């Protein structure tokens, strides 16, 4: 049976990598897709662990050869998910998690409507700005114009939240990790059965609370803080 395809998108600096890393030790049978990118390695990143780092020329050749399930340009660099990554994960009977931006998520939803998509929101622009500054400081120097650009893009990405099946708010890390793990478990239960035990019911309940349709009250203050209104939400389409 084909595995489940999970997508997580979040504005840069939302703490997504931390959550995804913690999920690795919590959830068995979930493969983490390693994307291709034309950006250079950052900090302690290692080729083929965080990304397959490559040149623009090679990336464009892969595009011409139709090797990508999806790809997009983010902050001036290409990022893409190779079709072979899905094939290999599913052949091994594993589920696959794609950490991709809103443009890539839209492409995957189109091609794989059964994919489970999760949007991770930072709790506020202030918290996001602090995280972005801390990260830039750790990598060298803080450039305010880059921070401002990332904040503006975060707002545009958040406007797409309604396209996602689930929403997480990263205000308390452990809670976001628990909710993410519950969503994975709940989707497995929904597809493979095994509901009925108290544990399964608890996971299903946590995941249900994270459905976008059930999250309006929780995310309203976040949307307000980012200046996202009913009229601007979903106005972006593909970024
Ligand atoms: P970073 O350079 O900070 O690692 O990632 C920048 C953005 O690119 C993040 O929003 C991340 O989710 C997105 N991204 C990473 N890999 C892919 C990919 O394969 N496809 C798409 N569309 N976006 C990706």
Describe it for me?
The protein has 239 residues and is an alpha/beta fold. It has one domain: 3-Layer(aba) Sandwich (Rossmann fold), CATH 3.40.50.300. Helices cover 47% and strands 18% of the residues. It contains nine helices and nine strands. The chain has helices at 16-26, 56-64, 83-91, 102-111, 125-139, 144-158, 173-192, 198-210, 216-226; strands at residues 5-9, 30-32, 35-37, 51-53, 68-74, 77-82, 95-99, 116-121, 166-169. The strands form two sheets. The chain has a five-stranded parallel beta sheet with strand order 2-7-1-8-9, with helices on both faces. Strands 4-3-6-5 form a four-stranded mixed beta sheet. The longest helix has 20 residues, at 173-192. Bound molecules: guanosine-5'-monophosphate. Guanosine-5'-monophosphate binds at residues 12, 35, 39, 70, 72, 74, 79-81, 99-101, 103-104.
Number of strands: 9
Compute the number of helices.
Answer: 9
Distance between the termini: 33 Å
| Ligand inventory | guanosine-5'-monophosphate
Oligomerization category of the chains in this entry: single chain
Mean pLDDT, as a whole number? Answer: 92
Q: Could you give the order of strands across the largest sheet?
A: 2-7-1-8-9
Blueprint of the fold:
Layout: E1 5-9, H1 16-26, E2 30-32, E3 35-37, E4 51-53, H2 56-64, E5 68-74, E6 77-82, H3 83-91, E7 95-99, H4 102-111, E8 116-121, H5 125-139, H6 144-158, E9 166-169, H7 173-192, H8 198-210, H9 216-226
The protein binds guanosine-5'-monophosphate (5GP).
Guanosine-5'-monophosphate binds next to strand 5, strand 6 and helix 4.
């Amino acid at each position: 049976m084909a595995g489940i395809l999970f997508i997580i998108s979040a504005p840069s600096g939302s703490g997504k990598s931390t959550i995804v890393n913690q999920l690795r030790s919590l959830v068995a049978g979930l493969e983490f897709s390693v994307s291709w990118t034309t950006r250079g390695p950052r900090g302690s990143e290692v080729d083929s662990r965080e990304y397959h780092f490559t040149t623009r020329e090679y990336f464009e050749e892969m595009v011409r050869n139709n090797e990508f399930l999806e790809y997009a340009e983010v902050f001036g660099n290409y990022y893409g998910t190779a079709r072979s990554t899905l094939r290999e994960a599913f052949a091994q009977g594993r589920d696959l998690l794609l950490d991709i931006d809103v443009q890539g998520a839209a492409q995957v939803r189109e091609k794989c409507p059964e994919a489970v998509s999760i949007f991770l929101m930072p709790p506020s622009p202030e918290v996001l700005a602090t995280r972005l500054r801390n990260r830039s400081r750790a990598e060298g120097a803080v450039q305010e114009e880059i921070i401002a650009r990332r904040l503006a893009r975060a707002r545009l990405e958040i406007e797409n939240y309604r396209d996602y099946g689930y929403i997480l708010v990263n205000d308390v890390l452990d809670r976001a990790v628990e909710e993410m793990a519950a969503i994975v478990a709940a989707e497995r239960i929904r597809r493979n059965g095994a509901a009925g035990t108290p544990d399964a019911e608890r996971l299903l309940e946590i995941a249900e609370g994270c459905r976008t349709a059930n999250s309006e009250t929780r995310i309203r203050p976040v949307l307000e803080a980012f200046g996202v209104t009913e009229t601007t939400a979903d106005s972006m389409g593909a970024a």
